[in-house]
Amino acid sequence: MTDALWYFGRGTGLVALVLLSVVVALGVGARSGRTAFGLPRFAVNLVHRNAALLAVVFLLGHVVSLYFDPYAQLRLVDLVVPFAGEYRPFWLGLGTLGLDLLLAVVVTSLLRHRIGARAWRAVHWLAYLCWPVALLHGWQTGTDGTTWWLRTVAVLCAALVAAAVAWRLSPGFERFPDRVPRKRPVLEEAR
Amino acid sequence: MRLHVDWTACDGRGLCAELLPELITEDEWGYPVVRTDEVSPRLEKAAGRAVDRCPALALHLLRR
Ligand code: HEM
After folding, report:
1. Are B26 and B56 a contacting pair, CB within 8 Å?
2. CATH fold label, B2-62
């Protein structure tokens, strides 16, 4: 029975990492303003949101099961406050930090209409910090960190996100690359 | 109800024109063109969805 918690914790953690990678790629896809895989823009946006919510569910499963796992010996503070743990505090702390960042990104997104676009966007940039933090945590912390299959999945996730970020930074990224940025002419006039 | 585009916020991402083609089309740069801002009761739900999905929070539904 206690082993079951441990297996569940490992499985949910891995699925959460894969989902998060897909969420980041879909977020970039949504930002591009393009349709993808035959999906209209609003659907890319919705799949991005729903995959993020699903990642939260898996992450809660990951955290709760390992909290009750007698071997991991987590205290409640370890689930909220990063780098306070006894066991591999740095790598475990990255997991806690990742969870905090994820919750910040998701909660502000659900309250987008309440907090305004500016604040929402500022917090949403943290997504680009959340993902590598989660990846490093998975790579280093657990039982499976050094196995070939976890490393393979992690490398595939990293390749997906790296490709998305490279696309995000490329000049042809937006649907209308030649569109005059809305605010720039005003700034240039003022100069 | 009446549709209102906040032009200081609109980024021309194009979701509203997909979700509410009855009232909104795109210009050649992808910015929305509101054909008529009058929202009939039949379209209120779809309009609400377009308002909700706007990535820039630039679309508003005003009661007149
Ligand atoms: C309920 C949860 C979420 C909602 C409603 C949401 C919504 C959005 C929206 C509306 C956009 C902008 C699309 C556009 O500009 O057209 C976006 C972009 C993005 N999202 Fe999310 N998101 C959520 C969770 C997450 C999570 C958990 C992550 C990753 C940890 C994430 C990563 C991203 C990224 C990387 C972008 C692109 C940002 C950029 O480069 O400008 N999102 N999201």
Report:
1. no
2. Alpha-Beta Plaits (3.30.70)
Query: What would the two tokens of residue A62 be?
Result: 């990951």
Q: Domain residues for A36? A: 2-190
Q: Does any CB of chain B come closer than 8 Å to the CB of residue A114? A: no
Distance A27 CA to ligand 1 centre (A): 5
CA angle A182-B21-B1, nearest 5°?
85
Which amino acid is located at A16 in the chain?
A
Closest CB from A41, A176, A179 relative to B15: A41
Cβ contact A113–B57 (<8 Å): yes
**Closest residue to B53, CB basis, from A42, A175, A176:** A42
AA letter at A144: D
Digit-coded pLDDT (tens) for A103-161: 999 999 999 999 999 999 999 999 999 999 999 998 887 677 678 888 999 999 999 99
Per residue in B4-41, pLDDT tens? Answer: 999 999 999 999 999 999 999 999 889 999 998 889 99
Chain B contact present for A176, CB below 8 A: yes
The structure tokens listed for A111 are 């309250």
Contact A182 B29 (CB under 8 A): no
Task: Name the residue ranges covered by the structural domains of chain B.
Answer: 2-62
The CATH number that applies at residue A90 is: 1.20.120
Name the pTM for this structure: 0.91
How many domains does chain A fold into? 1
